[in-house]
């Protein structure tokens, strides 16, 4: 289905005019690829926070246990190859570049290489589907700072596709995976002689600071309210409901669900989104639940926070409590997901243009152009790329931004 525009948000913000692009930039978080990389990688992630190496070593155990290797880079190489194959199958001649925020290949170097190769306008696809600072605005800040540091501001333009939390290409792989995992857990309970035992589906996503969550989806000009107090929470809840409603009724009969959080990394005194998945599992077990299905709804691929926090820690919690457990897969390189990402590219291109903007919840389709104040950076203002710089939605008296221009976070421009 294609949903109606957001209530309380100027519909003109939803779309950017299609444009000519030279290449696609696949942007991701990055991760270490050996034991010697772990501490330098964690320094990159925590840069500016003054965290000593001794503390970083204390939190590196999940990387150390995996040989110092995060799965994310290999997964991004596979996704890049899958995107290239899908583009070729559609005869779309856009090369796919890949850059990371926190590890090689670093975004500034990739932008410089793109410019040196003759590219002048890139369209960025990130490996983050939802709306919050770290999954949207921070990518735009990283591009903005990279353009400034390389001297490419005004020479190389970078735009970004919309957040795709409810795009069919992202959601439908979770539909399939949830149904399969429910069947596995019910089969395990049946084998144990308790086929009618209660089963609970936990939709899990990354916890973030409550203040960051509350800033997601905001507009300085048109304040909006969201279920759960933020667009980040509301988007996850909406997608979870969509998944549960679309799975075969017989599969979900007798199964309840809830949204939980994982991978908290902040100071104990700072409020983050709760409940933690392991606390939720313990509470469910105490209430009589016998089977747990974990759906990593907030994640694109099986990176470290999936294979450690879910496949290791959450699975161990279930085992200790005697609960049947299964974890649904992330989209990864599922053909529907890969095809959906290419569709998102085609929404923004002149050639092979797709005018329709599909969305599987009534929150979407999310906007191309971020309104002022959305997912504000509370840690300090940084330059960020404008979302398809134009006069659309600018406050009165604010000059239009050139493509690829920098805008200061929190200004009246689209940042």
TrEMBL record:
Catalytic EC class: lyase
Catalytic activity entry: Fe-coproporphyrin III + 2 H(+) = coproporphyrin III + Fe(2+)
Pathway(s) served: Porphyrin-containing compound metabolism; protoheme biosynthesis
Binding site for Fe-coproporphyrin III: 70, 139
GO molecular function: lyase activity
UniProt-annotated binding residues for Fe(2+): 206, 305
Alphabetical list of SUPFAM superfamilies matching this protein: Chelatase
Keywords: Cytoplasm, Heme biosynthesis, Iron, Lyase, Metal-binding, Porphyrin biosynthesis
Superkingdom, natural source: Bacteria
InterPro entries: Ferrochelatase, Ferrochelatase_C, Ferrochelatase_N
Transmembrane segments: none
Subcellular location: Cytoplasm
Family: Belongs to the ferrochelatase family.
Function: Involved in coproporphyrin-dependent heme b biosynthesis. Catalyzes the insertion of ferrous iron into coproporphyrin III to form Fe-coproporphyrin III.
Name of the molecule in the record: Coproporphyrin III ferrochelatase
Protein species of origin: Arthrobacter silviterrae
């Amino acid at each position: 289905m294609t949903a109606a525009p957001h209530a309380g948000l100027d519909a003109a913000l939803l779309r950017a005019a299609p444009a000519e692009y030279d290449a696609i930039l696949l942007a991701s978080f990055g991760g270490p690829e050996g034991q010697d990389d772990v501490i330098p990688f964690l320094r990159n992630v925590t840069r500016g926070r003054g965290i000593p190496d001794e503390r970083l070593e204390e939190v590196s155990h999940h990387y150390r246990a995996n040989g110092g290797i995060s799965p994310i880079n290999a997964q991004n190489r596979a996704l890049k190859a899958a995107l290239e194959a899908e583009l070729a199958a559609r005869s779309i001649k856009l090369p796919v570049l890949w850059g990371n925020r926190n590890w090689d290949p670093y975004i500034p170097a990739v932008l410089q290489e793109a410019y040196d190769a003759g590219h002048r306008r890139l369209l960025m696809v990130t490996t983050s589907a939802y709306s919050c600072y770290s999954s949207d605005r921070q990518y735009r800040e990283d591009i903005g700072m990279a353009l400034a540091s390389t001297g490419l501001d005004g020479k190389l333009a970078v735009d970004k596709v919309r957040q795709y939390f409810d795009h069919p290409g992202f959601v439908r792989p979770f539909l399939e995976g949830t149904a399969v995992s429910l069947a596995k857990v019910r089969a395990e309970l049946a084998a144990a002689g308790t086929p009618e035992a209660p089963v609970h589906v936990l939709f899990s996503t990354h916890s973030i600071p409550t203040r960051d969550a509350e800033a997601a989806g905001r507009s300085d000009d048109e304040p909006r309210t969201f279920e759960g107090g933020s667009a980040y929470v509301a988007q996850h809840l909406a997608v979870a409901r969509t998944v549960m409603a679309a799975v075969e009724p017989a599969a979900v009969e007798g199964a309840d669900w809830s949204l939980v959080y994982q991978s908290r990394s902040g100071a104990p005194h700072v409020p983050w989104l709760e409940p933690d998945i392991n606390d939720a599992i313990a509470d469910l077990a105490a209430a009589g639940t016998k089977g747990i299905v974990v759906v990593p709804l907030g994640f694109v691929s099986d990176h470290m926070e999936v294979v450690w926090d879910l496949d290791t820690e959450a699975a161990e919690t279930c085992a200790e409590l005697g609960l049947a457990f299964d974890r649904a897969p992330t989209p990864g390189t599922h053909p529907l997901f890969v095809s959906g990402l290419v569709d998102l590219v085609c929404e923004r291109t002149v050639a092979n243009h797709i005018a329709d903007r599909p969305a599987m919840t009534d929150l979407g389709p999310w906007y191309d152009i971020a309104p002022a104040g959305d997912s504000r950076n509370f840690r300090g203002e940084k330059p960020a790329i404008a979302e398809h710089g134009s006069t659309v939605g600018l406050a009165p008296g604010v000059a239009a931004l050139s493509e690829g221009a920098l805008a200061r976070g929190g200004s009246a421009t689209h940042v």
